[in-house]
Write a structure and sequence with these properties.
The complex is a heterodimer of chains A (about 425) and B (about 180). Chain A is an alpha/beta fold. Chain A contains 13 helices and nine strands. Chain A is about 50% helix and about 10% strand. Chain B contains eleven helices and two strands, in the order αααααααβααβαα. Chain B has a two-stranded antiparallel sheet. Classes of the chains: A alpha/beta (about 425), B mainly alpha (about 180). Chain B: It comes from Pan troglodytes.
Chain lengths: ~425, ~180
């Protein structure tokens, strides 16, 4: 009996602490500064760890760290130069050299494949998952690491799971309750309140520290918000600072419950799986949504898939054909404290969330950018590329023309045809053949 | 295994290539399949991409392990001066010798691996490189001319010796080399 009483007492004190220090401030959007102190301690510890490692690492292993820079000497000259000929020259047996060299270069290193695995850190951040080749450096370092594991799994994880649980339940219950009210400005205000509170709780569930820059450019009603995609948490990060209408597929399970609850409180755009295939239907519904100026801005991730936050890949033109004002947003995570990238082929949602909750923290910067609209004579693809460049520059990411769909599917034949066309022009010339 | 000894591929490069091998092996199988290589965007758009992928799977195998992976890549190692000086006639020729580089290129043409490039094989490889942009007639002309020019013994096909002879003036070492940065 005593054991149960003690456990009960601990649980209730625990819950009161949580309520007082975390939940209430979330409602009012106030921070008590606990996370700042945590971050300071964390940064100091990681700095110390880095110095220890650098002292202890033998020279060879530093080799591994430059793997993200190019490892082969590239000759980026166009096909004409590489084949050492002018236009209209004839086919030579040696032409195959050029293609085989380019092919083997791609096998040794290509700029796309490395974007679908997590970014490599230059120094270790005391999480074994980010260090592929960790060696024993010193007893002290290992002790600190063990301490880190205990802190992360036994102190932080239960806290975070509790918070996440509370956050999601509040969202579902709150949204359903607010949904019962008749449409009015009170309903909108309440739905925003519920929304923001739950998002703040969830962000604290991940120990998230987010810096918002240029808040004056925050997306307005009737616009479309466009951002680069790294993980499902992107949504959480953006919605903590403002309310958006989400676009996406209807899921089953927990996600489905959350989706159905949210749509009661304010209009989101959820599609059935079959409807997603019909591009005209999708465009039509989105157009209707933004035409209504009272509705919240739509949030879209035009890359279509999660990229590892070192680059921005091709933006699918669909979002840019709808019209309206585009509000670009750049999101950059700091990988030092935890890797936010969701490698969906490696981890499913639950193991991903667990990884998130056992990292040190999620630190990121969000830059709001001035709105853009499609100019005269610019087609959707050019507009998409313009927005993509702006986001890449702002977030300090590299820009790649490749389609994020390369993660799962093979590249389209149209790109191969271009190369074939170029080559044919060279050997056939202007139709002059003996 | 021949790779790794005698500096065929340097230690540092080997480490990098192993890193790359692991990155390409998405399902952590320990070997690469054709599909793993086909996922590389820049390779899939290469007109000879399929032939290059095929060169990793000699003898009809379906898997390439790390030594096999390096063996193909070793063909493209640049020729350093020291290699030619310390040539020990008893040791096997290094994979990045001029002859072996040429042999790699020859293999890209020789579809049935019979040691000869027939007119038919030449046509097929040409078709890969030009896609649908060139008519059958034009392509046949090119194939005929090329085979005729290289064919010395008049058997209507290009053997490896004839192939080598027709490219004797070509700077093969430079064109078929990939330099790994230190």
């Amino acid at each position: 009996m005593e054991g149960a009483e003690l456990a009960g007492k601990i649980l209730s004190t625990w819950l009161t602490l949580v309520l007082g220090f975390i939940l209430l401030p979330s409602v009012f959007g106030v921070s008590l500064g606990i996370s700042e102190i945590y971050m300071k301690i964390l940064v100091k510890t990681l700095e110390w760890a880095t110095i220890r490692i650098e002292k202890g690492t033998p020279k060879e292993s530093i080799l591994k760290n430059s793997a993200s820079i190019g490892i082969i000497q590239r000759d980026e000259s166009p096909m004409e130069k590489g084949l050492s000929g002018l236009r209209g020259r004839d086919f030579e047996l040696s032409d195959v050299f050029y293609f085989s060299k380019k092919g083997l270069e791609a096998i040794v290193e290509d700029e796309v494949t490395q974007r679908f695995s997590s970014e490599e850190l230059v120094s270790w951040n005391l999480l074994t998952r980010t260090n592929v080749n960790f060696q024993y450096i010193s007893l002290r370092l290992t002790m600190v690491w063990v301490l880190g594991v205990i802190v992360r799994y036994c102190v932080l994880l239960p806290l975070r799971v509790t918070l996440a649980f509370i956050g999601i339940s509040l969202l579902v219950i709150g949204a359903t309750l607010v949904g019962q009210l008749p449409d009015s400005s009170l309903k909108n205000w309440l739905s925003e309140l519920v929304h923001l509170t739950c998002c703040r709780i969830c962000v604290r569930a991940l120990s998230g520290t987010i810096h918002y820059h240029n808040k004056q450019y925050r997306p307005q009603k009737g616009g479309i918000c466009v951002a680069n995609h790294t993980s499902p948490i992107d949504v959480l990060i953006l919605t903590t600072d403002g309310c958006y209408a989400m676009v996406g597929q209807v899921h089953g399970g927990l996600m489905g419950i959350i989706q159905r609850a949210m749509v009661k409180a304010c209009p989101h755009v959820w599609f059935e799986r079959s409807e997603m295939k019909d591009r005209h239907l999708v465009t039509k519904r989105l157009k209707e949504h933004i035409a209504d100026k009272k509705k919240l801005p739509i949030l879209i991730f035009p890359e279509g898939t999660c990229i590892n936050n070192t680059s921005v890949m091709m933006f699918k033109k669909g979002s840019f054909e709808i019209g309206g004002t585009i509000h670009p947003v750049a999101i950059k995570y700091n990988p030092q404290f935890g890797d936010a990238f969701w490698n969906s082929s490696k981890y499913n949602m639950v193991s991903y969330l667990l990884r998130m909750m056992t990292s040190w923290a999620i630190v990121c910067d969000v830059w709001y950018m001035p709105p853009m609209t499609r100019e005269e004579g610019e087609d959707a693809v050019q507009f998409a590329n313009r927005v993509k460049s702006a986001i890449a520059i702002q977030g300090g990411l590299t820009e790649l023309p490749w389609d994020g769909g390369l993660k799962r599917a093979k590249v389209k034949d149209i790109f191969k045809e271009e190369q074939q066309k170029n080559y044919s022009k060279m050997i056939v010339g202007n139709g002059s053949l003996s | 295994m021949a790779v790794g000894r005698d500096g065929f591929v340097s230690q540092a490069s080997l480490l990098r290539l192993h890193h790359r091998f692991r990155a390409l092996d998405r399902n952590k199988k320990g070997y690469l399949s054709r599909m793993d290589l086909q996922q590389i965007g820049a390779l899939a758009v290469n007109p000879l991409g399929d032939r290059i992928i095929e060169s990793f799977f000699p003898d009809g195998s379906q898997r390439v392990d790390f030594p096999g992976f390096v063996r193909v890549l070793a063909h493209f190692r640049p020729v350093e001066d020291e290699d030619t000086e310390t040539q020990d006639p008893k040791k096997p020729e290094p994979l990045n010798s001029r002859r072996n580089k040429l042999h790699y290129a020859f293999q890209l043409y020789d579809l049935d691996r019979d040691g000869k490039i027939s007119r038919h094989e030449m046509l097929q490889v040409l078709r890969l490189m030009v896609g649908v942009q060139v008519t059958e007639e034009q392509l046949e002309n090119i194939a005929d001319r090329t085979v005729q020019e290289a064919d010395e013994d008049g058997d209507g096909a290009v053997s490896f010796v004839e192939f080598t002879k027709s490219l004797e003036k070509m700077d093969v070492e430079q064109k078929m080399s990939i330099r790994i940065l230190k």
